[in-house]
């Protein structure tokens, strides 16, 4: 049983025309799927559909996670500036009715898991970009979601921070194995983190192809220099170029 | 340092010119007293002027608190219901552009002849209400859309959304609205005192009216000076409060 599936889904926005599709995609429990595509191909729209925040115009969307079992990490850390890091992280728990003390305790644990122990009372404004993104990850993971959606979460960060955060995400994934769908512009990041990389064509996005990455998760040491990695990056890049051409 | 000094020097020069002009041209004191005359009137009437200033200030502050509760409360209710907002907006605008002096006689009738202070508070509330209200309405809509999505995702109720997202998000707008509202509350209180006339509440406007009736021009100007100083002090205080509030809200 899939965690979430799009079947022949199309999304139209009034006044702006077709944003996505038709596209079919499914995500299985514990799987990591990367969505890659040029700007404006509807990647973020696809993510909002999978999150249940929007419905398709045509086609069907199936989702099995209940309320509170889906988590989203946005492009920006999106932390409330008036709350401490811990209060930000405990917010999802408190909104779904967890007693405050327990929520705060679990939030502190979640912060510790992303390497932010000691920053519980810090305000977002005093955190670096990478730390704020980690707090955002902690907030997403604190509810132990079955489906985790990441919308270009590292786009604003420098290369080294990106790589560390990618490893952090994989490490977090190992503990509770949620299904992850993440959107990125970065082909190497997609190949490094995902079981499958789905490439979308230029908008409105259709599926240009899916590349399976044959390597264990989390990635072995030196994976970025392996031939499997290089070959997968080549293949995904090829699909991207092809997707640009077929659409035009 | 010279930034503080420059306006002081200008004030000194202007006062000196005024003093010299009045003395050399022999202007009668009931028409325009020299600054020294105003200073003497200020010192002589200090207790009654201070008491009057306190009356006007406390009226304005009470009005600010009442206006704040009403404006934020109404903004929250209206924010939950777009149709209600559409209904309230034009009505609020009409009230806002109607000068408070024009409404004053009516409110004075309603408050009853024995309670002009109620009318003055009501009128000050009226003028302080709008900046706070429009600040709150704007602020309640200014929450980060991704944070709104997060609240959708975790199935937050409408009150959870108001109390834990929209109100906290609107803090910068509320601070600005209250700063403007407080200044207007003072103006509203003074205008309403004028409306109430010399039989009314003995605030600063009454001091000006009363001194005017007695042709005590120096005392009139002294009351004006107190009013001006009070305004400047309040503005500085609120500016500071806004900055502290914003620093707290931003977390740095």
Give a structural overview.
Chain A is α/β, with parallel strands linked by helices and 248 residues long. Chain A has seven helices and nine strands, in the order E-E-E-H-E-E-H-H-H-E-H-E-H-E-E-H. In chain A, strands 5-6-7-3-8-9 form a six-stranded mixed sheet, sandwiched between helices. The longest helix of chain A has 21 residues, at 227-247. Chain A is globular, with a radius of gyration of 18 Å. The N and C termini of chain A lie far apart (36 Å). Chain B is an all-alpha fold and 252 residues long. In chain B, helix 2 crosses helix 11 and helix 5 (100-111) packs across helix 6 (116-140). The model of chain B has no long low-confidence stretch (mean pLDDT 90). The A-B interface holds A 48, 51-53, 67-68, 70-72, 74, 76, 78, 80-83, 91-92, 94-96, 123-126, 143 and B 144, 146-147, 149-156, 160, 164-165, 168-169, 171, 248-252.
List the SSEs and their pairings.
The complex is a heterodimer of chains A (248) and B (252).
Chain A: E1 4-13, E2 17-27, E3 32-36, H1 43-51, E4 58-63, E5 70-73, H2 85-95, H3 100-113, H4 129-141, E6 147-151, H5 159-176, E7 179-184, H6 187-193, E8 196-200, E9 207-212, H7 227-247
Parallel strand pairs in A: 3-7, 3-8, 5-6, 6-7
Antiparallel strand pairs in A: 1-2, 1-4, 8-9
Helix pairs in contact in A: 2-3, 2-4, 3-4, 4-5, 6-7
Chain B: H1 2-25, H2 35-44, H3 46-79, H4 82-97, H5 100-111, H6 116-140, H7 145-153, H8 158-169, H9 171-196, H10 204-213, H11 217-250
Helix pairs in contact in B: 2-11, 3-4, 3-6, 3-9, 3-10, 3-11, 5-6, 5-9, 6-9, 9-10, 9-11, 10-11
């Amino acid at each position: 049983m899939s965690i979430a599936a799009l079947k022949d889904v199309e999304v139209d926005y009034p006044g702006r025309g077709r944003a996505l599709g038709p596209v079919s995609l499914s995500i299985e429990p514990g799987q990591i799927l990367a969505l890659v595509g040029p700007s404006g191909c509807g990647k973020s729209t696809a993510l909002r559909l999978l999150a249940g925040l929007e419905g398709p115009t045509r086609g069907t969307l199936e989702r099995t996670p209940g309320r509170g079992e889906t988590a989203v990490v946005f492009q920006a850390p999106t932390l409330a500036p008036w709350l401490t890091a811990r209060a930000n992280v405990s917010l999802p728990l408190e909104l779904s009715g967890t007693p405050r003390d327990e929520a705060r305790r679990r939030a502190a644990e979640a912060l510790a898991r992303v390497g932010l122990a000691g920053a519980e009372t810090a305000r977002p404004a005093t955190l670096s970009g990478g730390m704020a993104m980690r707090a955002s990850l902690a907030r997403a993971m604190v509810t132990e979601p079955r489906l985790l959606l990441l919308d270009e979460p590292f786009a604003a960060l420098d290369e080294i921070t990106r790589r560390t955060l990618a490893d952090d995400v994989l490490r977090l994934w190992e503990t509770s194995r949620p299904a992850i769908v993440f959107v990125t512009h970065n082909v190497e990041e997609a190949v490094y983190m995902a079981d499958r990389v789905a490439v979308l064509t230029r908008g409105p996005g259709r599926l240009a192809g899916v590349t399976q990455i044959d390597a264990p998760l989390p990635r072995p040491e030196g994976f970025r220099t392996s031939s499997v990695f290089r070959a997968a990056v080549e293949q995904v890049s090829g699909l991207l170029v092809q997707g640009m051409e077929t659409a035009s | 340092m010279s930034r503080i000094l420059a306006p002081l020097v200008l004030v000194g020069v202007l006062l000196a010119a005024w003093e010299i002009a009045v003395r050399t041209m022999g202007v009668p004191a009931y028409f325009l007293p020299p600054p020294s005359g105003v200073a003497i009137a200020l010192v002589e009437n200090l207790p009654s002027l201070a008491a009057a200033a306190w009356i006007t200030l406390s009226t304005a502050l009470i009005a600010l608190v009442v206006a704040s509760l009403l404006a934020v409360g109404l903004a929250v209710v209206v924010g939950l219901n777009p149709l209600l907002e559409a209904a309230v907006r034009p009505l609020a605008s009409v009230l806002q552009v109607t000068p408070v002096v024009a409404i004053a006689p009516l409110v004075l009738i309603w408050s009853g002849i024995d309670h002009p202070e109620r009318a003055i508070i009501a009128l000050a509330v009226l003028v302080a209400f709008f900046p706070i209200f429009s600040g709150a309405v704007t602020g309640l809509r200014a929450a980060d859309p991704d944070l709104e999505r997060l609240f959708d995702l975790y199935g937050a109720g409408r009150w959870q959304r108001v109390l834990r997202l929209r109100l906290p998000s609107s803090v910068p707008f509320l601070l600005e609205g209250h700063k403007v509202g407080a200044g207007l509350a003072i103006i509203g209180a003074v205008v309403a005192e004028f409306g109430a006339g010399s039989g009314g509440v003995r605030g600063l406007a009454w001091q000006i009216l009363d001194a005017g009736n007695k042709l005590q021009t120096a005392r009139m100007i002294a009351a004006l000076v107190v009013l001006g100083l009070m305004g400047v002090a309040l503005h500085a205080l609120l500016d500071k409060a806004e900055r502290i509030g914003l620093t707290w809200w931003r977390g740095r």
